[in-house]
Specification:
By secondary structure, the chain is of the alpha/beta class. The chain has a single domain, classed as Alpha-Beta Barrel (TIM Barrel). It has an eight-stranded parallel sheet, sandwiched between helices. The longest helix is centred in the middle third of the chain and has 18 residues.
Length: 363
């Protein structure tokens, strides 16, 4: 199938999924109170990537059971297709079993050990956090933890996946890319609709904040694309939790727009490990196709959303130079000159010889 852009990146893949519940825990609220057996679902994920023309993907861990080690093994196995993010996965699993007590220091020690390998491009899904049942955070306490996370991300020059719409940390760490998962549109967000997208778009006015758009109906793209402080340079496409299966046998929620056929809601009434995997790419890429036909974005802008911005943030290899728009005040604002080149030479697999001329060469 022809893909929708020059270089397409899925920024939210769970290839270590199709879980089987193996133990009940009353220690952790994350994971619906269960510990899971992990399954390597990469074969079907890679099949879908090939089928729909998705060039690369970013792996995210999630529930207690997925470990950074398994994510790194997948990157080693498919270096031209996958990159991974890490989190405090081993500590989280020990906490679920009652074998450890969570601290931000222990969590960041595990994260830094993963980052030191050079195999991870960011942290998330679910940033290091005390998920102990009954834990209630104060705003200052959580912001201080978030600052420690961002200090580490700045040290290793990698990105942060977050679910928060609080722009204070984005202001304090302008050099740390922050990605709002699902563009703010997940869980209860399916019911909150466009108002939540407007809130998230307001945070994306920060140049280091990006909205992941994969779960959006096409109509939601209009909100950030028509915002002069956001636009296509701050959006990143994903396949809506591609590969993640426990939530899939679900009903469409009653929103104004048609949501994907597996979002959230009544999952526990049916099989927790379903017998099929929802075709996320078909739905999500069709929304991108609609965006083009609704004249909400040019193809150059879609190329940024579909892969260019992700290639820049995650330092991904791309086949050719000059694939993505740069040096344009209408897209890059008053700092348009800083956008040239869009990607450094070391990320280009087939660089031009000689390199493109500069305007000064015409004098």
């Amino acid at each position: 199938m022809r893909n929708e852009g020059r270089f397409v990146v899925d920024t939210h893949i769970h290839a270590t999924t199709l879980y089987k519940r193996i133990a009940k825990t009353n220690k952790l609220r994350l994971g619906s109170g269960y510990i899971f057996e992990t399954y390597d679902n990469s074969s079907l994920c890679l099949y879908d990537m090939e089928r729909y023309g998705v060039d690369m993907g970013i792996l995210l861990p999630s529930w207690p059971g997925t470990l950074n080690k398994m994510q790194a093994e997948l990157v080693d196995r498919y270096p031209d297709k996958l990159r991974a993010c890490c989190s405090d996965q081993t500590l989280r699993l020990k906490c679920a079993k009652g074998e450890a007590k969570w601290t931000i220091e222990a969590a960041l020690e595990e994260v830094e050990a993963a980052l030191k390998t050079g195999k991870f491009v960011g942290v998330g899904e679910f940033l290091p956090e005390d998920f102990t049942k009954g834990k209630i955070y104060g705003v200052r306490e959580r912001l201080d933890e978030f600052r420690k996370i961002c200090d580490l991300m700045a040290k290793y020059d990698v990105a942060v996946y977050t679910r928060t719409n609080d722009c204070r940390i984005a202001d304090e760490y302008p050099d740390v890319p922050m990605i709002i998962m699902h563009g703010g549109y997940s869980g209860s967000g399916y019911r909150m609709g466009p108002d939540l997208i407007r809130t998230s778009s307001g945070m994306a006015a920060n140049e280091n904040v990006y909205l992941e758009t994969g779960c959006w109906p096409a109509e939601y793209y209009e909100i950030p694309l028509k915002d002069p402080n956001v636009g296509a340079t701050q959006l990143m496409w994903s396949g809506c939790d591609q590969g993640n299966c426990p939530q899939y046998n679900t009903a469409r929620l009653g929103t104004k727009y048609i949501a994907p056929s597996g979002t959230s809601g009544i999952r526990n009434k049916w099989l927790f490990t379903p017998r099929y995997q929802t075709d996320w790419y078909g739905w999500s890429l069709f929304q991108v196709h609609k965006v083009r036909h609704m004249n909400l974005a040019t193809q150059d802008e879609l190329n940024l959303i579909l892969g260019g911005n992700a290639a820049k943030i995650f330092k991904l290899p791309v086949p050719q130079p000059r694939m993505f728009p740069c040096g344009r005040p209408d897209l890059n604002g008053i700092h348009w000159e800083k956008s040239i080149p869009f990607l450094p030479a070391e990320q280009i697999q087939n660089p031009d010889t000689p390199q493109p001329y500069k305007w000064d060469d015409l004098d």
